């Protein structure tokens, strides 16, 4: 295997191609032999048991459904109440003909309602133990001599509540399709005396549907009663007949409900026969499956070939995947490295332990990464210097701009001949100049920024007297956080000089500051003339506006972007004649930990 590292890719592919062609042939040969050997041992016993058990369960459910239905009829008030009243009126001769007809109508009407909701029920008859004429609904007519029927007598004499039968003498003549007859002995729920027998005819079609789709080709299913008579079967020759006597004797002793199987020759065919007694009566389900169906050589051969080919294909796919993975592993590794580089990680390297062409490719790739890293470091240094220069240039633009306006204010005040006001103004100006010349050129605490803003406001209030109303509400929790200098003062200056230049009402400016999570939020709100939509759109598209009205705002926006990058937000909301609302959101971390942005 050590020498394998020195082989070329072409040799490696040839070796694996041989493996792909030989291994599937071996697999096909072995599996064909095993399948041919075990084909004769194909076990249909479990299949016969399972399918017979399922059919028996379905038939039990079928029988139980109608058992419950006929019991519901027997316990219904239509029979219990109306029949009892009918008997009482008849015995006492106190009722009129209309009352008698109403009682009969109520009973038979309930029967018709049941027929309407159950399409497989053909007839419902109630045969009273008294001398009252039977009640009926459906296509079969009740027999006049029903009390002589053996099954009627059996239910009355033996108190056998439910009985299923195919042939009875309870009806005058049978009409329509074949059907089963379900008998039920009705007891008076109050006195528990016999009231009569309900006979319900049920179409055999529903019973046939239960097993028709589950019987394999050439399979025969019988439903047998306790006498061996065929109740239903998919073999038309067996209907109305009896099951093979010898076969029947093998299962007649089956008293439990476990499925039994035997091998048996039926009509000259070798069969696997399964039988199971039903739980709802003394019937049996007997299922005969021919061995020939399951052991046809052609089908088995096709299965063997199919399985063998499938396995060979799976083997070929498996080996091919292994080959491609093995050969392409260095390429895949290099691809992953390139994706990491694309995401900004230039510290990765391609490691290759082979001695083939991929080794040379990996070495060249690593050399290229080293050269890129060198270029990136140089470029980063250049961008940092450019960023610092841009920031300081923008910072410097603020100082002379507001100092010029402040001196202009002092000059105006001097003309007003108010020495005290001039002194206060000069003091405030001195504080501002001291703030400008602080050794920390770029940043200051929120507390210092607010003090500087207050000094500037004092100067402006000397000029505008009571016309200028400025409110500052900044949470004390922000005092020790750092921000860039002159973040708020240019906003106040912009509001005073440009927001109120053409209005006569009081000038109101509100400054708010609060901490939300990891961000500080500052808001400046005025009731001035507002900012034109064109200027606001220029801010959003980062186009510098040469109008002095927007100079301070653009400066702040540029400094925020240079210092905080995408961690800051500068939002302007304004409507002409209704004032301006500016919201600044910046990180609440120490600025000394932030890097300059490109």
Automatic annotation (TrEMBL):
Q: Would the keyword Acyltransferase turn up in this protein's UniProt record?
A: no
In its UniProt record, a GO molecular function of this protein is: ATP binding
- Which residue ranges does the record assign to the HAMP domain? 325-377
What cellular-component terms does GO give this entry?
plasma membrane
Is Nucleotide-binding a UniProt keyword of this protein? Answer: yes
Xref: SUPFAM superfamilies = ATPase domain of HSP90 chaperone/DNA topoisomerase II/histidine kinase, HAMP domain-like
Q: Which CDD domains match?
A: HAMP, PDC2_HK_sensor
Q: Where are the transmembrane segments?
A: 12-34, 302-321
Cellular location(s): Cell membrane
Alphabetically list the UniProt keywords: ATP-binding, Cell membrane, Kinase, Membrane, Nucleotide-binding, Phosphoprotein, Transferase, Transmembrane, Transmembrane helix, Two-component regulatory system
- What InterPro entries does the database record attribute to this sequence? Bact_2-comp_sensor_kinase, dCache_1, HAMP_dom, HATPase_C_sf, HATPase_dom, Sig_transdc_His_kin_internal
Q: How does it sit in the membrane?
A: Multi-pass membrane protein
Name used for this protein in its record:
Sensor histidine kinase YesM
Biological source species: Clostridium grantii DSM 8605
């Amino acid at each position: 295997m050590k020498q394998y590292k020195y082989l070329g890719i072409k040799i490696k592919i040839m070796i694996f191609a041989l493996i792909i062609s030989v291994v599937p042939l071996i697999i096909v040969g072995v599996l064909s032999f095993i399948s041919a050997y075990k084909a004769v041992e194909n076990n249909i016993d479990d299949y016969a048991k399972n399918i017979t058990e399922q059919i028996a369960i379905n038939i039990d459910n079928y029988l139980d459904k109608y058992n419950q239905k006929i019991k519901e009829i027997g316990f219904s008030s239509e029979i219990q109440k109306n029949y009892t009243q009918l008997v009482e009126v008849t015995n006492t001769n106190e009722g009129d003909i209309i009352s008698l007809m109403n009682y009969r109508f109520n009973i038979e009407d309930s029967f018709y309602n049941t027929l309407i909701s159950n399409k497989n029920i053909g007839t419902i008859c109630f045969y009273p133990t008294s001398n009252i004429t039977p009640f009926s609904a459906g296509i079969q007519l009740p027999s006049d001599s029903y009390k002589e029927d053996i099954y009627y007598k059996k239910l009355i004499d033996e108190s056998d509540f439910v009985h299923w039968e195919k042939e009875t003498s309870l009806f005058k003549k049978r009409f329509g399709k074949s059907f089963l007859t379900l008998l039920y002995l009705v007891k008076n729920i109050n006195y528990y005396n016999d009231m009569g027998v309900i006979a319900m005819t049920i179409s055999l079609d529903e019973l046939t549907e239960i097993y028709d789709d589950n019987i394999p080709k050439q399979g025969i299913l019988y439903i047998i009663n306790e006498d061996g008579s065929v109740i239903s079967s998919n073999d038309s020759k067996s209907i109305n007949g009896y099951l093979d006597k010898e076969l029947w004797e093998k299962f007649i002793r089956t008293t439990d409900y476990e499925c039994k199987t035997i091998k048996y020759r039926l009509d000259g065919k070798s069969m696997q026969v399964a039988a199971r007694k039903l739980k709802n009566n003394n019937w049996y389900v007997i299922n005969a499956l021919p061995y020939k169906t399951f052991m046809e050589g052609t089908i088995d051969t096709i299965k063997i070939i199919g399985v063998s080919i499938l396995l060979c294909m799976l083997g070929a796919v498996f080996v091919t995947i292994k080959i491609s993975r093995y050969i392409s592993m260095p390429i895949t590794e290099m691809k992953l490295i390139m994706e990491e580089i694309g995401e900004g990680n230039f510290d990765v390297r391609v490691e290759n332990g082979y001695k083939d062409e991929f080794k040379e490719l990996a070495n060249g790739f690593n050399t290229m990464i080293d050269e890129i890293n060198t270029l990136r470091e140089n470029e980063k240094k250049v961008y940092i210097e450019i960023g610092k220069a841009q920031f300081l240039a923008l910072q410097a633009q603020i100082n002379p701009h507001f100092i010029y306006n402040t001196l202009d204010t002092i000059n105006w005040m001097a003309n007003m001949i108010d020495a005290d006001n001039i002194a206060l103004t000069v003091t405030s100006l001195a504080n501002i100049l001291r703030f400008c010349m602080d050794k920390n050129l770029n940043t200051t605490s929120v507390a210092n920024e607010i003090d500087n803003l207050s000094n500037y406001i004092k100067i402006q209030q000397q000029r505008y007297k009571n016309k200028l109303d400025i409110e500052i509400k900044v949470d004390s929790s922000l005092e020790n956080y750092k921000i860039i200098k002159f973040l708020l003062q240019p906003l106040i200056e912009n509001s005073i000089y440009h927001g109120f230049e053409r209005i006569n009402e009081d000038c109101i400016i509100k400054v708010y500051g609060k901490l939300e999570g990891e961000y500080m939020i500052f808001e400046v709100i005025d009731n001035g003339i507002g900012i034109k939509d064109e200027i606001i759109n220029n801010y959003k598209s980062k186009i510098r506006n040469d109008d002095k009205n927007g100079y301070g705002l653009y400066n702040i926006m540029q400094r925020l972007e240079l210092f905080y990058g995408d961690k800051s937000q500068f939002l302007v909301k304004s409507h002409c004649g209704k004032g301006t609302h500016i919201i600044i959101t910046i990180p609440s971390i120490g600025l000394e930990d932030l890097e300059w942005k490109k």
